[in-house]
Design goal:
The chain is an alpha/beta fold. The chain has two domains: 110 residues; 349 residues, Kinesin (3-Layer(aba) Sandwich), CATH 3.40.850.10. It is built from nine helices and 14 strands. The structure holds adenosine-5'-triphosphate (ATP).
Length: 531
């Protein structure tokens, strides 16, 4: 038992030792584990710290990264916004461009259509032009033919026109009675104009006494180429005269006399109320304008129109006054007050009349002619103040020389138009000269020249039978030698006063006019430039 016990005890002690051993090992193990746990804790702490540090670092880095990322993001966003804006702008622009493109395409297509249309039109036009050109060539040929015919017709017209003039007689006589002037208030003569449509007759009724002493009424009737009553206008007179202007351009010397007593209307008929001023337009003259401005306007206008038919004309003019048988140049430089006036000689050579030292001005427009007439008129009025109404006591002669040549037909002509305002025709007893020797001399000179004019016309009327034509008997007839006679066309415009008191002078003027009208002057001859 004891042994058992001892063994048991030994076993138990062995067991206890083993258990102790085990406990020790366990304790060591526990210590070890505790140390290890401590270590683990420390390590865990360290690790935690490290983790914390690393987390902090990581957080910092993350924060930085986030900031950087945020910055970048912002930058990207800004870039993105910009890009978006750019893209939007581009889209807008593209939209616009595409609209513009569409518009342009539409325009382009419209333009293409237009170009096509124009090309078609051009082709048509070219075709038409070709047709027109062909037609033009035909027309040109026709025009050349017509021009030739026209030239022939123009030459024929000239010939016929002048033949008609010849048939009518180269001296024609018109009578014009002026209206009563308001301010005069004189009693008027009894005058009748029978057959006013024909306008060729005038009748003057004059109270008288028969041999037995009974009161009678005498009627004087006169027939002329035309009679103008007091209502006739300046235009009416010119209408009857203008064919003579055509004759001047055709190369015929033409002379128009205004004859009549002082105050009967000679200057009114020739010049009219005031010459056109510098503002005058070549296409018109005033209603009051007389024969000279109208003739000048017509001559220049007709010369211009004849350019188409190959004619080219040169005009030149002079203005002379014959006072007491002496010639004064109204365009000359000499002082009109001078006591030693320039002496002018009249020369006739080859059908042309020239006056020595007289100014002849080249005239290229109607305005220049009017300037010439105003100059002459101013000069005449200076003389008039010196010589008391000298204008009605002198003859004024305006001469327009017209030279023409036709480069196509080689025709040429050279003629003068003389427009003569004669001195008052009243008889010596009525001239108011009385005992005034100056007035007497004037009246004698006027009488001489007017009776010489009648003699010349009468001698011309008698043709060769008269033998000698007394041109030299007065300065007037000598100056107008080539404008009278067979080589010219002459028109006498007899001015008449309607006043009863002037009846005697009116009848005398009409008798003189009748004498002239009864004269048949030989055939007018065209003057060629070379003659
Ligand atoms: N047909 C007419 N109509 C209106 N007035 C006229 C007419 N004829 C002449 N007269 C006027 O009569 C007056 C005299 O005319 P004008 O001076 O023309 O006469 P004249 O014969 O030339 O005279 P002179 O011999 O003195 O030069 C002027 O006042 C003029 O205006």
């Amino acid at each position: 038992m004891a042994a058992l016990f001892d063994r048991e005890r030994a076993n138990t002690e062995a067991q206890m030792a083993a258990e102790q051993q085990e406990r020790k090992k366990y304790s060591e193990r526990v210590t070890q584990l505790e140390e290890s746990l401590e270590e683990q804790k420390r390590l865990a702490k360290e690790s935690k710290r490290e983790v914390g540090r690393r987390r902090t670092l990581f957080d910092d880095e993350m924060a930085q990264l986030r900031q950087a990322h945020a910055r970048e993001k912002r930058a990207w966003e800004e870039d993105l916004d910009r890009e978006r804006n750019t893209v939007r702008a581009l889209k807008d622009s593209m939209a616009q461009n595409s609209t513009a493109h569409l518009t342009m395409e539409a325009t382009n297509s419209a333009l293409r259509t237009e170009v096509q249309r124009l090309q078609d039109q051009l082709r048509e036009s070219q075709q038409r032009t070709a047709d027109v050109e062909a037609e033009l060539i035909k027309q040109r040929e026709a025009v050349v033919e017509i021009e030739g015919e026209l030239r022939e017709a123009e030459s024929l017209r000239r010939k016929l026109h002048n033949e008609i003039q010849e048939l009518r007689g180269n001296i024609r006589v018109f009578a014009r009675m002026r209206p009563a002037l308001q301010h005069q208030g004189n009693s008027l003569a009894t005058v009748r104009f029978p057959n006013p449509k024909e306008a060729r007759s005038i009748e003057i009724l004059s109270a008288g006494e028969s041999a037995t002493g009974t009161a009678t009424m005498r009627t004087f009737q006169f027939d002329f180429d035309h009679v103008f009553g007091p209502d006739a206008t300046q235009r009416d007179v010119f209408d009857e005269v203008q064919h003579l202007m055509q004759s001047v351009l055709d190369g015929y010397n033409t002379c128009v006399f205004a004859y009549g007593q002082t105050g009967s209307g000679k200057t009114h008929t020739l010049e009219g109320s005031g010459l056109p001023t510098a503002n005058y337009e070549a296409s018109s003259v005033s209603e009051g304008a007389g024969l000279i401005p109208r003739a000048v306007q017509m001559l220049f206008a007709t010369a211009e129109a004849l350019k188409d038919k190959g004619w080219s004309y040169d005009f030149s003019g002079s203005m002379l006054e014959i006072y007491n048988e002496t010639i004064n140049d109204l365009l000359g430089k000499a002082d009109p007050k001078s006591t030693t006036p320039v002496k002018h000689e009249i020369q006739h050579e080859k059908g042309r009349t020239t006056v020595s030292d007289a100014v002849v001005l080249p005239l290229s427009s109607p305005q220049q002619v009017f300037a010439l007439l105003s100059r002459a008129s101013a000069r005449r009025s200076v003389a008039a103040t010196l010589m008391n109404e000298r204008s009605s006591r002198s003859h004024s002669v305006f001469t327009l020389r017209v030279r023409g040549s036709n480069s196509t037909t080689m025709e040429s002509c050279d003629a003068t138009l003389s427009l003569v305002d004669l001195a008052g025709s009243e008889r010596l007893a009525n001239s108011g000269s009385g005992d005034d020797p100056r007035r007497l001399k004037e009246a004698v000179s006027i009488n001489k020249s007017l009776s010489s004019l009648a003699d010349v016309i009468a001698a011309l009327g008698q043709g060769k039978a008269a033998g000698h034509v007394p041109y030299r008997n007065s300065t007037l007839t000598w100056l107008l030698k080539n404008s009278l006679g067979g080589n010219s066309k002459t028109l006498m415009l007899t001015s008449l006063s309607p006043v009863a008191e002037h009846l005697g002078e009116t009848v005398a003027s009409l008798r003189f006019a009748k004498l002239v009208n009864g004269t048949i002057i030989g055939t007018a001859k065209k003057v060629r430039a070379s003659e």
